[in-house]
Amino acid sequence: MKTKVFKEGRQDGFTLLELLISLTILSVIVVIVFSGFRLGIRAWEKGEQDLEVRQQYRIVLNLLRRQIASIWVQKNIALSDRIYGLRGDADTMAFVSQVHLIPDNDYGNVFVEYQIKSSSVDSMEGRQKQLMFSERPMTFINPADFSVGNNPGIPLKKEPTDFFVLIPKADRIEFAYLKSYSEDKFVWQDTWNPDEDDLFPRAVRITLVPVRQTPPLSAIIRLDSREEKQKS
Questions:
Q1: 101 HSE (CA, 13 A, CB side)
Q2: Can you tell me whether residue 19 is helix, strand or coil?
Q3: What pLDDT is recorded for position 12?
Q4: How far apart are CA 232 and CA 224, in angstroms?
Q5: Which string of DSSP letters, residue by residue, matches 89-151?
Q6: Is residue 14 included in any domain, yes or no?
Q7: Tens of pLDDT, residues 149-187
Q8: What is the rounded distance in angstroms from the CA atom of residue 111 to the CA atom of residue 91?
Q9: Taking 90 as the threshold, does the pLDDT of residue 1 lie above it?
Q10: Helix or strand or coil: residue 26?
C-alpha cells in the first residue's frame, strides 16, 4: 500500500497580517490624495469667487468714475450765484453731477452723497466696510437750504434720504483728494473743504481693498476741467 507524503514548504499568497498592513497603507494614501484634491477644489472655488468679486467692484468703480468725472459746475442763484463745490473726507463725499446711477431719473442734475460705513456685524476678517450712496434731483432741492459760506456745497436742511449699497463688503475703502500748491507740487489729502480749498480738487482717488491681504483696486478721476469751467 502506497502512502502519500506531503512536503512542508512556503505557499504562494499573502498572510492576513500582510493584507491588513497593505490595506492600511492604501487607505492612508487614498485619504491624502482626496484631501489634497478637496483642498485644491476649495482653493479654485475661492479664487473664482475672489475674481468675480473684484470684477464686480471694478464695475462699481467705473460707475463712480463716470459720475465724479461729470461733476457739474452749477451756480446757486439764491446765494448770489455762488457755485456748488465738492466736499469730502476719507469716508464721505458730496457734489452735483450730471450723471445719475439710479434708473428712471428724468429730472436733470443730481446732488450725490457717498458714505463709507462699518458693517454692523463683525466677520472672521474683522469689521467690514460698506460703500453707500444717495441721489437727489436738484430740481427738488431748495437752493436756499445750502450752507452759506464762500463756497457752499452741502445742504443744511437734510431731508430723509434713501441710501443704496454699492459695495456691501470690503476690507478697506477710502477717498482722497489731490490739492495743487503750485505747478509742480501736488499733495493727496484726506479732506476737501471748498470754504478753505478750491471749489474742486485736481483729482479724486478711490482706494478699495476687497479682501484683506489682497492687492487694492483704485480709481483716480481727474477734475482739471472743473477749474476752467468755474472761472468762465
A1: 23
A2: helix
A3: 62
A4: 14
A5: -SSEEEEEES--SSSS--SS-EEEEEEEEEEEEEETTEEEEEEEEEEEEGGGS-GGGB--SSS
A6: no
A7: 444 455 544 554 678 899 988 999 999 999 988 878 899
A8: 17
A9: no
A10: helix
Element (H, E) at 24: helix 16-69
The model's pTM: 0.70
DSSP 169: E
Q: What is the pLDDT of residues 53-96, one digit of tens each?
A: 888 899 999 999 999 999 887 665 444 445 677 889 999 999 88
**Residue 163 placed within a domain:** yes
Boundaries of domain holding 102: 47-231
- Decide if 67 is inside a domain: yes
Domain count, the chain: 1
Query: What whole-number distance in Å separates Cα of residue 128 and Cα of residue 120?
Result: 8
SS3 228: helix
Looking at every residue in the chain, the average pLDDT score rounds to 78
DSSP 27-91: HHHHHHHHHHHHHHHHHHHHHHHHHHHHHHHHHHHHHHHHHHHTB---EEGGGTTEEP--EE-SS
Q: Which long-range contacts (CB under 8 A, 24 or more apart) does 24-29 make?
A: none
